[in-house]
């Protein structure tokens, strides 16, 4: 009924984190990347944290939007208050909260775990590519 609400809250927190990390990275990189007022080429040995967070953000928002549309399609979300059809009946509200606590939390944890695996694999491949590139230049 409202299982998408838990990943939606996580997506909001991750989005706020993304903008904070991106701003911090820009502040730290500006002095390094400018030589006499001209941007220098960046040689990084790892994938930026903001890039990794953006992957999680995309995964979460994509899932939330898809699930919200599916719930709207099935009439579980309505365009008038209380917006969630389960909130009109106290018995349905209890069922909705239980679903959010079980299914919603499970989905959020699973998506975050998959993101962790993707980040680890991407970092390993990136390092491997950099090593090959260094060997070719030598």
Describe the global form.
elongated
Give the domain tally: 1
Strand share of the residues? Answer: under 5%
Count of individual helical segments = 3
| Structural classification | mainly alpha
Strand order of the largest sheet: 1-2
Distance between the termini: 59 Å
What does this structure look like?
The mean pLDDT is 88. The longest helix has 48 residues. By secondary structure, the protein is mostly helical. The chain has three helices and two strands. Helices cover 74% and strands 3% of the residues. It has a two-stranded antiparallel sheet with strand order 1-2. The N and C termini lie far apart (59 Å).
Summarize the structure.
The protein has three helices and two strands, in the order H-E-E-H-H. With 138 residues, it is mainly alpha-helical.
What are the defining features of this structure?
elongated; mainly alpha; 138 residues
């Amino acid at each position: 009924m409202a299982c998408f609400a838990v990943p939606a809250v996580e997506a909001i927190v991750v989005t706020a984190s993304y903008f904070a990390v991106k701003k911090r990275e820009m502040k730290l990189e500006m002095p390094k990347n400018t030589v006499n007022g001209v941007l220098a080429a960046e040689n990084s040995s790892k994938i930026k944290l903001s890039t990794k967070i953006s992957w999680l953000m995309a995964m979460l928002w994509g899932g939330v939007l898809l699930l919200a549309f599916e719930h709207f399609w099935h009439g579980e979300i309505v365009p008038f208050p209380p917006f969630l059809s389960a909130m009109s009946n106290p018995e349905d509200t209890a069922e909705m909260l239980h679903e959010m606590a079980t299914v919603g939390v499970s989905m959020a944890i699973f998506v975050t775990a998959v993101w962790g695996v993707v980040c680890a694999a991407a970092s390993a491949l990136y390092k491997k590519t950099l090593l090959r590139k260094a060997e070719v230049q030598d």
